[in-house]
Amino acid sequence: MQTIMVHDKLFQPYLSAAVIDEKVSAIANQINKDYEGKHPLFIAILNGSFIFASDLFKKISIEAEICFIKLASYKGTKSTGQVITAIGLDTDLFNRHVIIIEDIVDTGKTLHEFLPQLHHQHPASLKIAALLHKPAATVHHIHVDYSGFSIPNKFVVGYGLDYSGLGRNIPEIYELVD
Ligand code: IMP
Protein backbone atom coordinates (compact mmCIF):
# COMPACT_ATOMS: atom_id res chain seq x y z
CA MET A 1 0.00 0.00 0.00
CA GLN A 2 1.50 3.26 -1.22
CA THR A 3 1.18 6.16 1.20
CA ILE A 4 1.77 9.78 0.12
CA MET A 5 2.71 12.99 1.89
CA VAL A 6 0.64 16.12 1.28
CA HIS A 7 2.25 19.04 3.09
CA ASP A 8 3.07 17.60 6.51
CA LYS A 9 0.49 14.82 6.58
CA LEU A 10 0.49 11.18 5.55
CA PHE A 11 -2.37 9.80 3.44
CA GLN A 12 -3.21 6.25 2.36
CA PRO A 13 -5.15 5.01 -0.70
CA TYR A 14 -8.90 4.91 -0.13
CA LEU A 15 -10.83 4.91 -3.46
CA SER A 16 -9.13 3.93 -6.72
CA ALA A 17 -9.63 5.81 -9.98
CA ALA A 18 -11.47 2.77 -11.41
CA VAL A 19 -13.88 2.57 -8.46
CA ILE A 20 -14.57 6.31 -8.69
CA ASP A 21 -15.13 6.09 -12.44
CA GLU A 22 -17.63 3.26 -12.01
CA LYS A 23 -19.57 5.29 -9.45
CA VAL A 24 -19.55 8.43 -11.60
CA SER A 25 -20.96 6.36 -14.48
CA ALA A 26 -23.71 4.97 -12.24
CA ILE A 27 -24.71 8.47 -11.11
CA ALA A 28 -24.65 9.77 -14.70
CA ASN A 29 -26.79 6.86 -15.93
CA GLN A 30 -29.38 7.55 -13.25
CA ILE A 31 -29.46 11.27 -14.05
CA ASN A 32 -29.74 10.52 -17.78
CA LYS A 33 -32.84 8.45 -17.01
CA ASP A 34 -34.38 10.84 -14.48
CA TYR A 35 -33.91 14.03 -16.55
CA GLU A 36 -34.68 12.89 -20.09
CA GLY A 37 -36.43 15.79 -21.83
CA LYS A 38 -35.99 18.10 -18.80
CA HIS A 39 -32.92 20.04 -19.99
CA PRO A 40 -31.36 20.20 -16.50
CA LEU A 41 -28.91 22.86 -15.35
CA PHE A 42 -25.95 21.54 -13.36
CA ILE A 43 -24.38 23.95 -10.90
CA ALA A 44 -20.90 22.82 -9.90
CA ILE A 45 -19.52 24.24 -6.68
CA LEU A 46 -15.88 25.23 -7.07
CA ASN A 47 -13.13 24.52 -6.31
CA GLY A 48 -13.43 20.97 -5.04
CA SER A 49 -16.05 19.65 -7.47
CA PHE A 50 -14.32 20.58 -10.71
CA ILE A 51 -12.97 17.11 -11.51
CA PHE A 52 -16.13 15.27 -10.45
CA ALA A 53 -18.24 17.80 -12.39
CA SER A 54 -16.11 17.36 -15.49
CA ASP A 55 -16.15 13.54 -15.39
CA LEU A 56 -19.87 13.45 -14.58
CA PHE A 57 -20.84 15.95 -17.26
CA LYS A 58 -18.93 14.03 -19.94
CA LYS A 59 -21.15 11.04 -19.15
CA ILE A 60 -24.40 13.04 -19.38
CA SER A 61 -25.92 12.12 -22.72
CA ILE A 62 -29.15 14.12 -22.51
CA GLU A 63 -29.46 17.82 -23.35
CA ALA A 64 -28.05 19.70 -20.34
CA GLU A 65 -26.23 22.87 -19.25
CA ILE A 66 -23.57 23.48 -16.63
CA CYS A 67 -22.38 26.55 -14.75
CA PHE A 68 -19.93 27.13 -11.89
CA ILE A 69 -20.29 28.81 -8.53
CA LYS A 70 -17.53 29.55 -6.07
CA LEU A 71 -18.18 29.58 -2.35
CA ALA A 72 -15.64 29.79 0.43
CA SER A 73 -15.05 26.39 1.95
CA TYR A 74 -12.12 24.87 3.77
CA LYS A 75 -9.01 26.18 5.45
CA GLY A 76 -6.81 23.32 6.59
CA THR A 77 -8.49 20.20 7.89
CA LYS A 78 -11.54 21.69 9.65
CA SER A 79 -14.58 23.45 8.24
CA THR A 80 -14.31 27.20 8.75
CA GLY A 81 -18.05 27.56 8.80
CA GLN A 82 -17.76 30.70 6.67
CA VAL A 83 -19.52 30.70 3.35
CA ILE A 84 -18.79 33.58 0.99
CA THR A 85 -19.99 33.84 -2.58
CA ALA A 86 -17.01 34.70 -4.75
CA ILE A 87 -18.41 34.00 -8.21
CA GLY A 88 -22.10 34.73 -8.57
CA LEU A 89 -24.76 32.76 -10.33
CA ASP A 90 -25.65 34.45 -13.62
CA THR A 91 -28.25 31.98 -14.95
CA ASP A 92 -31.94 32.47 -14.16
CA LEU A 93 -33.12 29.38 -12.26
CA PHE A 94 -36.83 30.09 -12.51
CA ASN A 95 -38.62 26.92 -13.64
CA ARG A 96 -35.31 25.13 -14.31
CA HIS A 97 -34.44 21.62 -13.17
CA VAL A 98 -31.29 22.24 -11.16
CA ILE A 99 -28.72 19.68 -10.02
CA ILE A 100 -26.00 20.86 -7.63
CA ILE A 101 -22.66 19.11 -8.05
CA GLU A 102 -20.61 18.92 -4.85
CA ASP A 103 -17.37 17.07 -4.20
CA ILE A 104 -18.23 16.23 -0.60
CA VAL A 105 -20.95 16.96 1.93
CA ASP A 106 -19.15 17.11 5.26
CA THR A 107 -20.90 19.16 7.99
CA GLY A 108 -23.56 20.26 5.49
CA LYS A 109 -22.92 23.93 6.33
CA THR A 110 -22.01 24.95 2.78
CA LEU A 111 -25.21 23.65 1.23
CA HIS A 112 -27.28 24.74 4.22
CA GLU A 113 -26.12 28.31 3.50
CA PHE A 114 -26.34 28.06 -0.26
CA LEU A 115 -29.58 26.16 -0.95
CA PRO A 116 -31.96 28.91 0.27
CA GLN A 117 -30.34 31.31 -2.23
CA LEU A 118 -31.27 28.88 -4.99
CA HIS A 119 -34.78 28.10 -3.72
CA HIS A 120 -35.38 31.83 -3.71
CA GLN A 121 -35.31 31.77 -7.51
CA HIS A 122 -38.06 29.11 -7.68
CA PRO A 123 -36.43 26.38 -9.75
CA ALA A 124 -38.78 23.64 -11.03
CA SER A 125 -36.72 21.15 -9.00
CA LEU A 126 -33.48 21.18 -7.04
CA LYS A 127 -31.41 18.06 -6.40
CA ILE A 128 -27.92 17.35 -5.15
CA ALA A 129 -25.23 15.11 -6.58
CA ALA A 130 -22.26 14.64 -4.25
CA LEU A 131 -19.42 12.23 -4.82
CA LEU A 132 -18.70 11.84 -1.12
CA HIS A 133 -20.77 12.18 2.03
CA LYS A 134 -19.59 12.05 5.65
CA PRO A 135 -22.78 11.27 7.62
CA ALA A 136 -20.92 11.25 10.95
CA ALA A 137 -19.84 14.88 10.45
CA THR A 138 -23.38 16.19 9.91
CA VAL A 139 -24.24 19.51 11.56
CA HIS A 140 -27.00 20.41 9.10
CA HIS A 141 -28.84 17.49 7.54
CA ILE A 142 -28.65 17.63 3.74
CA HIS A 143 -30.51 15.11 1.61
CA VAL A 144 -28.10 13.96 -1.11
CA ASP A 145 -30.18 12.73 -4.05
CA TYR A 146 -27.27 11.29 -6.05
CA SER A 147 -24.65 10.12 -3.59
CA GLY A 148 -21.41 8.44 -4.62
CA PHE A 149 -19.80 7.11 -1.44
CA SER A 150 -20.70 7.44 2.23
CA ILE A 151 -17.36 7.68 4.00
CA PRO A 152 -16.21 7.76 7.64
CA ASN A 153 -15.44 11.10 9.25
CA LYS A 154 -11.86 11.18 7.97
CA PHE A 155 -10.12 13.87 5.98
CA VAL A 156 -9.59 12.92 2.33
CA VAL A 157 -7.64 14.39 -0.61
CA GLY A 158 -7.48 13.80 -4.34
CA TYR A 159 -9.90 13.86 -7.28
CA GLY A 160 -10.40 17.61 -6.83
CA LEU A 161 -10.24 17.66 -3.03
CA ASP A 162 -7.34 19.47 -1.41
CA TYR A 163 -5.47 19.77 1.82
CA SER A 164 -4.45 23.44 2.07
CA GLY A 165 -4.28 23.81 -1.69
CA LEU A 166 -2.47 20.58 -2.53
CA GLY A 167 -3.67 17.17 -3.70
CA ARG A 168 -6.45 18.16 -6.10
CA ASN A 169 -4.61 16.63 -9.08
CA ILE A 170 -4.29 13.15 -7.55
CA PRO A 171 -6.51 10.83 -9.68
CA GLU A 172 -7.48 8.64 -6.70
CA ILE A 173 -8.89 9.54 -3.27
CA TYR A 174 -6.58 9.18 -0.27
CA GLU A 175 -7.49 9.31 3.42
CA LEU A 176 -5.53 10.82 6.28
CA VAL A 177 -3.50 8.32 8.29
CA ASP A 178 -4.19 8.99 12.00
P1 IMP B 1 -19.33 21.25 4.55
O1 IMP B 1 -19.83 22.67 4.42
O2 IMP B 1 -18.78 20.98 5.92
O3 IMP B 1 -20.33 20.22 4.13
O4 IMP B 1 -18.05 21.15 3.66
C1 IMP B 1 -18.10 21.16 2.31
C2 IMP B 1 -16.78 21.54 1.70
O5 IMP B 1 -15.67 21.37 2.60
C3 IMP B 1 -16.50 20.60 0.54
O6 IMP B 1 -17.08 21.09 -0.64
C4 IMP B 1 -15.00 20.55 0.51
O7 IMP B 1 -14.50 21.59 -0.31
C5 IMP B 1 -14.57 20.77 1.94
N1 IMP B 1 -14.25 19.47 2.60
C6 IMP B 1 -15.02 18.80 3.48
N2 IMP B 1 -14.43 17.65 3.86
C7 IMP B 1 -13.27 17.60 3.19
C8 IMP B 1 -12.20 16.62 3.14
O8 IMP B 1 -12.21 15.55 3.79
N3 IMP B 1 -11.17 16.92 2.32
C9 IMP B 1 -11.10 18.06 1.57
N4 IMP B 1 -12.07 18.98 1.58
C10 IMP B 1 -13.14 18.76 2.38
Structure commentary:
The chain has 178 residues and is an alpha/beta fold. It has one domain: Rossmann fold, CATH 3.40.50. It is built from 3 helices and 12 strands; from the N terminus they run E-E-H-E-H-E-E-E-E-E-H-E-E-E-E. It has helices at 17-34, 50-58, 109-119, and strands at residues 4-6, 9-15, 41-46, 65-71, 74-75, 78-79, 85-87, 97-105, 125-133, 146-150, 156-157, 173-176. The strands form 3 sheets. A 6-stranded mixed β-sheet has the order 7-4-3-8-9-10, sandwiched between helices. It has a 4-stranded antiparallel β-sheet with strand order 1-2-12-11. Helix 1 packs across helix 2 (50-58). The radius of gyration is 16 Å and the shape is globular. The two termini are 16 Å apart. The mean pLDDT is 92. The structure holds inosinic acid. Inosinic acid (IMP) is lined by residues 48, 73-74, 79, 102-110, 155-157, 161.
Question: Which terms would index this structure?
Answer:
single chain; 178 residues; alpha/beta; Rossmann fold; six-stranded mixed sheet; four-stranded antiparallel sheet; 3 helices; binds inosinic acid
